[in-house]
Prior knowledge:
Blueprint: H1 2-19, H2 28-36, H3 40-48, H4 64-72, E1 74-75, E2 80-82, E3 88-90, H5 93-100, H6 123-132, H7 137-152, H8 162-168, H9 179-196, H10 206-216, E4 217-218, H11 236-250, E5 257-258, H12 266-270, H13 275-308, H14 367-377, H15 417-426, E6 436-440, E7 443-446, H16 447-450, H17 461-474, E8 480-482, H18 485-494, H19 501-508, E9 524-531, E10 534-541, E11 546-550, H20 563-580, E12 591-593, H21 606-616, E13 617-618, E14 621-622, H22 631-643
Parallel strand pairs: 8-9, 11-12
Antiparallel strand pairs: 1-2, 2-3, 4-5, 6-7, 9-10, 10-11, 13-14
Helix pairs in contact: 5-9, 6-7, 13-14, 17-21, 19-20, 21-22
Amino acid sequence: MHRQRRQQSATDESSTTSECTLLTRCSPTRFLRLCSQLDERKQEAIRDMNFGGLLSITCKEVRHNLCLWLIERFDVGLRKIQWSSTHHLEVTPNVVNELFGLPMHGRILQVSSNPSEHHFGRIRDCEDRLRELPIGEEFRRAFIWYACATILAPTSRVDGCRNLWHTLHGDEFRNDINWAQFVVDELVSGIRHFQQSQNAWVHGSLVFLQLFYVVKVRISSMQVPVTMPSIVAWSDDLLKIRLQQELRDYGSFGHGEVFEDVPNTPSDVESEDSDELRQQYEAAQRTINEQLSIMKRVMRRLHSRRRSSTHAVGSSPNAFPSSPSFSHASDHGFPFAEHCTSPLHPTNFDTPGPQTSQDIPNMQGDDDSAEDVKSLRAMMVPQTHRRSRTHRVRRMAQSLKSPFVPQPHTRQSAIPMDLKEAIAFVFNTDMDPSEELVSLYETHLTRGNLGCFEGSHWIGNEVMDAYCRFLQHEDIGRTKLFISPYLAEIVVQSKPKKLVKDSILNQYERYLYDIAMPYGHVIEVFLPLLIKNHWTLIVFDLYKLRIQLLDSLGGRKKTHMTGAQRNLAKVVLCLMVHKKGVGEYNLERFSFVMPDVPSQTNEHDCGVFVMKFMEHWSSGGLTKSIDPTQMSKYRLKLLGNMLLSQHNAHRTLFQK
């Protein structure tokens, strides 16, 4: 009956995925066929570019049923795959580095739409060029584009991404790109487009998506060796067996054990480039193997002696107290029981069967045995001869229990004690409201200004402006630009009739924060907007040519911008053209959307929502969930970000 249910579940799973269609141009077979035709010198040049892990791919097929199952459960806002309340996988650049060996440090690649002087060709033309070109800069750029078009970031076009070709062949291109982040961004963007449209094409690396699942979700009935990069171990046959085994055992995907951490391999030691560390690692490994070998021999002899002995073991002063069988060592708290199945020592430690008296080793006559016994006796507690009845306590400590067993725990406060004391100092009504408590990044806030974080007050313009400055300086990647809400206020109130470049620069450029940053890296612009005591956030995605209006009030979705919003868009895009030094941004080419965001449950938390949106919005979605029921805690944490910032000149007021 149970087997029939599993088979029925597997049938339902396959029928569900078969209803959807999936098309992709992700083709590891084509990529490997070309690489096999390149000589050794060119393959070595590919390894020097940090793309050598792709040459080790052995999985050539894309499993559409698994990919569809993963895409249906992919949260593009949080960038994770979640199939239950307790099982999820976060898609990060670290995982791409682990699977493909691609670099996960460097600058973010910005795909430009400006054409270059290099003639663009199809994928087939690029293959011919790679065979003929000598090793040089042209060969390296062509190979990067070919790898993206076939494995890392394929699109639905036969000729690949034209803008990426021109970006790679631009004069300012350098191969110091965070390629792992690029793979994640393109996959998330492709899945988002697939989920929101009726198109069957999926952009992005689906071979990475399926390998990501089988590497991170493991089943007990199948063991796969750990390699670096991970793609080396997974062939088409092994992947097929792995998926069939999971469907046979559980009836569907998603029932394995999730492993989030990257396994520790000898390559971690080699990456230090230190002979001393490598020698220490090998010496520690040999010591562990020797100790495990000693414990194995002693426990086998103890087991044999216990079975064959007909008198009390404790009668001789040189004998051991009666010991449990080896198979139950872990139940009796044996100190090395957890190491007996260590991968460092592959010997089988199964309990031996009954032995004859001739097979029993003489423990006292064997030098090795005497040494082992001496080492083991030092770890054992001598027996007492009291006649009182003893009871064995088998309860394990809480810290030693399995992490997969739910344990009772005490819920801790989400607000640290130092922040609580600082908040009490700020909200003290008996103190001077004009006292300055925040002075950072050329902004100053008094106790009266910060009072808006208390209770059900609205967030004021001065606080929103200060937090925009704070986020701008805290943005390490320099890919986001936060604009003061005062700019939006001036544009909305003045209602300009003519918005030309000169007037925009003269009137509104001064509202950009005076900070030294490379505007050429900016891909998202955040502008808080306050109209009729309600805060909203306008996000300009310069990479996807999209304007997003984040409104926590909910209600009916708008499909067009209002007149005030269009004026704001013209001003912002004109400022970006001036600062980035690029061609004109045509407002008509930008799409306008209102994404689904958490909704406020009252009339006064809109400003808190906007501040949280600016913190966690990236690439068209939230990187961290926002709970509308926790607004009071969010208020205090947002206040604490500025009070306890190391750049706050008055921070010492809140430290003891």
